[in-house]
Amino acid sequence: MSLPTVDELRSEVRDWLQQNWTGLPKHDDPWSSSPERIAWLERVLDAGYAVPTYPTEWFGRGYPNDLAAHIRREFTAVKAPGAGQDKYNIPANTILKLGSVPLKQQLLQDFLTERARTCLLYSEPGAGSDLAGVRTTAVRDGDHWVVNGQKVWTSGAQTADYALLIARTDWDAPKHKGLTFFLLPMKQPGIDVRPLVQITGESHFNEVFITDALVPHDHLLGAEGDGWRALQTALAYERSIMGDTGRSSRNRSRADDLIALAREHGRLDDAAVRRSLAEVLALRELNALNNARAKASTEQGTSSSIMSLGKLAMSRILHAEARLKTELIGAAALLAGRDNPESDDVNFLALNAFFTSIGGGTDQIQRNIIGERVLGLPKEPEADRDIPFRQARRN
């Protein structure tokens, strides 16, 4: 198959968008998709723009990363969603790499059009920073696995149709080798979802209690006992997304424009403020370049430790921005509520910055990954790494 030139592709995408894109009605719930959005995503998928780096048999065009990037840029220019899902759609990318052919035939299209929504069942009350220590169990029973346990910090669990689940299937193997990765149907008896209230007042995270829930054997992602490697593939996509955007669940306001905010409050000529502005903007540019380098060198379905660098950098950027915004508005930062929209936005962004420090692996975990896998520093000692998990010390 011959590839188009960059100019040919950009012209094709522009023409298609001009003929098809008219915008979508406002939809405020981030955990559900409107019928109009689903219909639009189906059109994007049919045109081959949703996942252009995928093989042609799986809705793609077989394009290299650098060519596919031009499709994303054209969609971004007109604020149209749906392109570039081969970079950010965690469940679709994971089952493309690890799912069986029947599973891909059954669900890949639904994940790419948001007809099916997913959540991530990874962290547990006793296994957050050390995900290899999970104690949620899956026991084989014929053509199904029976799952019991508890998960926490799960976004979107209330509306999810499926979950990417890491569970322990062998207690006699060392902790990293006794895990299996599943695609768990969420709409079934035995799954109890309880919202958690965040410091921002939102409730996007949940506890999930699982009692004798069933997952079909053909919903394994990867091989039995190879769940740790499968999990790393899914985590790489999550960290890549967070490193790219650090996005908030709430729409940004004028407080997001640092230079405009400094000018409005008469602080743009302040040398200290200008230095802080320059540092934040430089960090953003550096992080964008680092993420582009990581993605250019990472093949579809693989993970890169460099993604941790971008995720950690975005956490630092958001906290630095929050401190600067708080300084710029001064004593007004003590105010909140609808009567003080700018102060309320600044305080929300300051509190929400902690989400990026925790989600997708804490800042401390990212530093460990960078130190060990990027810089080649000695690994931290793990006394329980090579012993049967049932013999490992439990909190």
Automatic annotation (TrEMBL):
<keyword id="KW-0274">FAD</keyword>
<dbReference type="InterPro" id="IPR036250">
    <property type="entry name" value="AcylCo_DH-like_C"/>
</dbReference>
<dbReference type="Pfam" id="PF02770">
    <property type="entry name" value="Acyl-CoA_dh_M"/>
</dbReference>
<dbReference type="GO" id="GO:0005886">
    <property type="term" value="C:plasma membrane"/>
</dbReference>
<feature type="domain" description="Acyl-CoA dehydrogenase/oxidase C-terminal">
    <location>
        <begin position="225"/>
        <end position="375"/>
    </location>
</feature>
<keyword id="KW-0560">Oxidoreductase</keyword>
<dbReference type="InterPro" id="IPR009100">
    <property type="entry name" value="AcylCoA_DH/oxidase_NM_dom_sf"/>
</dbReference>
<dbReference type="InterPro" id="IPR009075">
    <property type="entry name" value="AcylCo_DH/oxidase_C"/>
</dbReference>
<protein>
    <submittedName>
        <fullName>Acyl-CoA dehydrogenase</fullName>
    </submittedName>
</protein>
<keyword id="KW-0285">Flavoprotein</keyword>
<dbReference type="InterPro" id="IPR046373">
    <property type="entry name" value="Acyl-CoA_Oxase/DH_mid-dom_sf"/>
</dbReference>
<comment type="similarity">
    <text>Belongs to the acyl-CoA dehydrogenase family.</text>
</comment>
<dbReference type="InterPro" id="IPR037069">
    <property type="entry name" value="AcylCoA_DH/ox_N_sf"/>
</dbReference>
<dbReference type="InterPro" id="IPR006091">
    <property type="entry name" value="Acyl-CoA_Oxase/DH_mid-dom"/>
</dbReference>
<feature type="domain" description="Acyl-CoA oxidase/dehydrogenase middle">
    <location>
        <begin position="119"/>
        <end position="202"/>
    </location>
</feature>
<dbReference type="GO" id="GO:0016627">
    <property type="term" value="F:oxidoreductase activity, acting on the CH-CH group of donors"/>
</dbReference>
<dbReference type="InterPro" id="IPR052161">
    <property type="entry name" value="Mycobact_Acyl-CoA_DH"/>
</dbReference>
<dbReference type="Pfam" id="PF00441">
    <property type="entry name" value="Acyl-CoA_dh_1"/>
</dbReference>
<dbReference type="GO" id="GO:0050660">
    <property type="term" value="F:flavin adenine dinucleotide binding"/>
</dbReference>
